[in-house]
Write a structure and sequence with these properties.
Low-confidence stretches: 1-16
Number of strands: 4
Strand order of the largest sheet: 1-2
Distance between the termini: 34 Å
Shape: globular
Number of domains: 1
Mean pLDDT: 80
Helix content: 40-55%
């Protein structure tokens, strides 16, 4: 049985637990579980600035996007997220003034998602917290290596 990282103790002794589902020969299940654990780590770190990892990802994509603000559809594609999930996650960002939706007449009603100055300020704080969490994870689990950079992007089946 493969050991599993216990995210509730990730700042502590780094204990490992076993789970019957870890014995399943399903790569998709293993990846979903690993992704949920990493998301928990990021959510715990970002909680101090009032963000969740999904919303941090949206702000980060907007902050580092070249070529102008993306449309809702473009942003959903960049995040590998459907438009309804994007819309759901944008609501608190819109309500808190971190992003705005702009219509451009030339784009025939297509809405562009724009990072506001408040959103950029929030990103400065969030990036520091996120980097701390990433550093802790790398040193505890990957021996300081940046494992994510070695992953090959998987093409969409669509």
């Amino acid at each position: 049985m493969a050991p599993r990282f216990n995210s509730s103790l990730y700042f502590g002794s780094m204990t490992w637990i076993n789970d019957a589902a870890d014995d399943l020969p399903c790569c998709a299940t293993a990846m979903r579980k690993a992704t949920r654990r990493l998301t928990q780590l990021d959510d715990d770190a970002l909680e101090r600035c009032g963000l969740r990892s999904t919303r941090f990802a949206i702000l980060a994509e907007l902050d580092f996007k070249l070529g102008g603000p993306p449309t809702m559809t473009e942003l959903a594609l960049l995040l590998v997220m459907d438009r309804s999930a994007l819309g759901h996650n944008l609501q608190p960002l819109l309500r808190n003034g971190l992003v705005t939706l702009n219509d451009r007449p030339a784009d025939k009603g297509r809405r562009h998602v724009v990072l506001t100055p408040q959103g950029r300020a929030k990103m400065k704080i969030a990036v520091k917290l996120w980097n701390e969490a990433e550093d802790r994870f790398r040193w505890r689990v990957a021996g300081g290596q940046t494992a994510a950079r070695s992953l090959v992007p998987i093409p969409s089946p669509r």
